[in-house]
Amino acid sequence: MTMKNLLFSISLKILILGILDALAIWSIITIIFDGYYWVGGILSLGVIIINYIFLSERAYPFRYMVPGLIFLIIMVIYPIFYTIFVSFTNYGTGHILSKEQVIEQFENQYYLSEDSTSYTYQIFEDSSADLKVIITSPVGESYLCENEKIMEVDLSDSRFIDIDKDGIIDQFDGYKKLDKIQIIQRLNELQNLKFKKDGHIIKLANLMEFKIYNKKYRFDFSQDRLLDLENEKVYYPVEGYFISQQGERLTPGFKANVGFGNFTRLIKSPQISGPFLRVFGWTFLWAFLSVITTFALGLTLAIVLNDPYLKLRKIYRTLLIVPYSIPAFISCLIWRGFFNTEVGIVNRILNNFFQVIIPWLQHPIWAKVAVVVVNLWLGFPYMMIITLGALQSIPFELGEAAAIDGASRWQQFKSITFPLLLVSLAPLLIGSFAFNFNNFNVIYLVTQGRPAIPGAGTPAGATDILISYTYRLAFEGVRGNQWGLASAVSIIIFIIVAIISAIGFRYTRALEEVSKNV
Fold first, then answer.
1. What's the pLDDT tens digit per position in 445-471?
2. Computed over its alpha carbons, how large is the radius of gyration of the chain?
3. CA pair distance 488, 492, nearest whole angstrom
4. Is residue 135 helix, strand or coil?
5. Helix, strand or coil for residue 211?
6. What is the distance between the alpha carbons of residues 120 and 140, in angstroms, rounded to a whole number?
7. For residue 187, what are the CA distances in angstroms to 137, 176, 178, 409?
8. Which of 202, 317, 357, 436 is surrounded by the most beta carbons within 10 Å?
9. Which long-range contacts (C-beta less than 8 Å, at least 24 apart) are formed by 492-500?
10. What is the pLDDT of residue 513?
11. Distance between CA atoms of 171 and 284, rounded to whole angstroms?
């Protein structure tokens, strides 16, 4: 590399790093001012490490790893840790804001007392549609109100002009009085006006008057309690709510750490644990049936198509791969139409030949049969392809030798072909089990997890598996979104899949030992 090219390369590197550093510093300052100190700290540390890697010759090998590591952290590691964090909170509908934000909302609430002072008012507007308000108390004190501020004024001052001498100010400082019709036209804007006076708020009470509103709540930071100034009640923060000693609960709630509360709810709460255990059990059965049915059909077709004497077998192979070539979401929606009770082609055929109508998507058992059939259609081509490939790797001489020794076709398959197939296919079958354990598309697109489980306290359906149940908890809850509970279920799914994979791969090593002895 020439000196000129080297200088250009260094200059370009410094320029790019400078731009990225400037953006990072701006982001860090913004994040810190918003109160997210730990995020700002992590981002600062990341910027320092990146600069060191690209400016230090010692860290040269890491330059090629940095882009991948950045995306790994953003796309994989951060979501995992954030999901774990959320699973120990009550985050969800009614618990989205922080405690400080909820306190601020309560302290901005006001009530109108029965003996509240009333003020008559006049509304004025200038050429730029800016509003000012003059209010007058029952004892004749007048106040000019603007931008949430209020100050006492003397209406006899020359700046306030009464054109028609009726005792009512018509204009001042370029502002002209609005009539009743104009006030009604801007009523929404007027209702949002509020002016602070002596610790109280003066707001529009009706078309005739402004009134003094008193602050309803005040938070006592020294004793960590919320005081209801109107009803003289005290509320304490308990598990994301402000709750009185009488059990009265204020909404909205706030985000709070609930420990293992979400996990224990899945076990102890009858309305949640019952449906959850049904979903849990069906998830395992669904994954097992999905693997067994697709593998059984795929294996059968592979053995048939592996026969060198079968005519037109290339055409058969091509036709049988068609379901695999069509996008799964399209096939799922088409099959949903096929299983429609009233107009679906499946029921029309059954009705024409057997006078039978089956509620495929309405009955729990038949809905499960429907999703298994759809998954069989989608999955058997894959199993057929991998089994065909595995059959090609088994020496043909093994079968011939077994036949000479008097072994039947079934004995050859059971003792030679199938064990050797499992050596190659066991990892893929384990992967298929894990995939179907989280096969959201088939379940949601065909049945949406329905029909519903009667009496469930969460949105759980007869065909829901854990992943669709998690989605519905997060986004389809009747009582709102329960992201904390959904995250807890996600953690359980992760642990189960990890355990299944670990057990499965130990079993795979055992099969490898079998293959050495065949």
1. 999 999 999 888 888 999 999 999 999
2. 36
3. 6
4. strand
5. strand
6. 10
7. 21, 17, 12, 89
8. 202
9. 492/263, 492/266, 492/466, 493/437, 493/438, 493/466, 493/467, 496/437, 496/466, 497/434, 497/437, 497/438, 500/430, 500/433, 500/434, 500/437
10. 61
11. 78
Measured CA to CA, the distance from residue 238 to residue 249 in angstroms comes to: 10
Tokens of 356: 């039978």
Q: Which of 466, 500, 487, 498 lies closest to 283 in space, CA to CA? A: 466
Tokens linked to 333: 């929606």
Q: Give percent of the chain with pLDDT exceeding 70.
A: 97
Closest CA to 429 of 334, 332, 307, 511: 511
* DSSP annotation string for 414-427: IIIIHHHHHHHHHH
3-state SS, residue 309: coil
What kind and span of H or E run contains 377?
helix 364-392
Q: Which of 422, 401, 423 is nearest to 412 (CA)?
A: 401
* SS3 state at 246: coil
Q: Among residues of the chain, what percentage have pLDDT more than 90?
A: 58
- Strands (E) across 251-397 are located at none
Give the pLDDT score at 309: 82
Q: What is the DSSP letter of 452?
A: B
pLDDT at 393: 85
* pLDDT tens profile 244-291: 989 999 999 999 999 999 999 998 888 889 999 999 999 999 999 999
Q: Is the peptide bond before 275 cis (omega within 30 degrees of 0)?
A: no
Show the CA angle centred on residue 444, arms to residues 441 and 448, nearest 5°. 170
Amino acid 514: pLDDT:
53
∠25-30-36 over CA atoms, to 5°? 110
Residue 278 near residue 460 (C-beta atoms within 8 A): yes
pLDDT in tens, 123-147: 999 989 899 999 999 999 999 998 8
Hey, what amino acid is at 487? S
Q: Report the run of H or E that residue 226 belongs to, with start and end.
A: strand 225-228
CA 402, 406, 409, 410 dihedral sign is negative
Q: How many CB atoms lie within 10 A of CB 61?
A: 8
Distance between CA 34 and CA 52 in Å, rounded?
28
Tokens representing 294?
């697709």
Q: What DSSP state is assigned to residue 168?
A: S
Given a cut of 80, whether residue 199 has pLDDT beyond it is no
SS3 assignment, position 197:
strand
Contact 175, 132 (CB under 8 A): yes
Label residue 80 by pLDDT band (50, 70, 90).
Answer: very high
